[in-house]
Amino acid sequence: MKQWGSWRGVTAAVFALGLSHSFAQQWKAELPAVEKAGVYRIVLSPEMVGRSQAILGDLRIMNEEGQEVPWLVEFGDHDTFSDTLIDFEVLRNESGPRRTIVDFVPPSPDFITEVIHLQFKNAIVTKELDLRGSYDGEHWYFIKGERLDLTGDPESTYTMRILYAPKNDYGYYRLAINDSLSAPLKVLSVKWKKATRNRSAGMQGVSMPWTRTDSAGRTWLRVQSPYMIAMDGLDIVVEDRRYQRQCYIEVPLKRSTRMPLELPQGRVESFTIGSNQAWSPAFRSLRMDTFNIVIHNGDDQPLKIARLEYRQRKRTLIAELQSGMRYALTTGDTKRAPPHYDLIHFKDKLPEPIATIEHGPLIALAATPEAGPSLAPSRWWIWAGLVAVLGIVGFMAVRMLREPQQPNG
Q1: Would the pTM of this model clear 0.70, i.e. be above it?
Q2: Residue of 298, 269, 271, 273 whose CA lies nearest to 286
Q3: Which residues does residue 84 pair with via DSSP β-bridges, in sequence order?
């Protein structure tokens, strides 16, 4: 019977281990004391956003008496973008007996020509044109030929056409229009589109930790953050003067516990970076902590990257605080449901916040168990231990039944 007691203890220990709870790390951040009671804006740091659920459902404001303080959340506005058509400097615009020649130069030596906007006096005609480039204004090299079809614009006295060309960095360009079959066209202007990024006060730039790997034709920028990154845009600061590269963001797919081999990457966003662009890529909000930014270099040398930042919409809590009371933010409970406060029905009637405050640094709290047991098929060692113990217990039980019983006394 002593043996049975020993094995019963081992069995209980294994079951206790298997049914134990997994632990979720939770966090706390103190709020500064307020001198006047009223409504305040509380700006959440990128780390607080990253440690919380995507919808901030686990975030709470607690006072020193352990009571919840209702809050509303506001999201900052995205950056906006605007386009302006700007004239190239035209050096020559002449019509000869058989062709029209327009020579123009880019706005700066490092300008890369790719999209050209042509403005003509209104006409209905079909002509052939070609685009050429030169480094010195004397020796010309072919870039692209195209058929030009003008159908007239019924609402204006001029018409616009877009000429898409392979990217080039010539110092001079020539547009030649074949007039051998009809009278020449009146070319009014040659333009390029300048895109301007209007940075919103509701967005913030945050530096990312990253490492770099270069290989044939590509550069990998590996980002590994200790918390989730909520990314609404990206700033890749490059020191090179002339460049335009295709890029994409990829995330590693989850590994299978039964197949611990490296799985392929999943592409989540594609974009272009270039010295012509006055903006950085913006996209739908992404949330991830480990990912690669892949830059296609083609036959060019890898770019000299000075800085890598992500753009994040500010998250701001609106809450009513009392003077003389201490408050703290808590987060990190992945199973916690979002709160439901009556305050949501009065968001348009709240007074203007007294001030904007920021919380202190995040402090890790003692780990608390998540809801539900952690006994899962992926934890194979627990299952193996249970099977082994049950087998031994069964063997011992059969053996004891076969042993002769000792008389009492």
Answers
A1: no
A2: 269
A3: 194
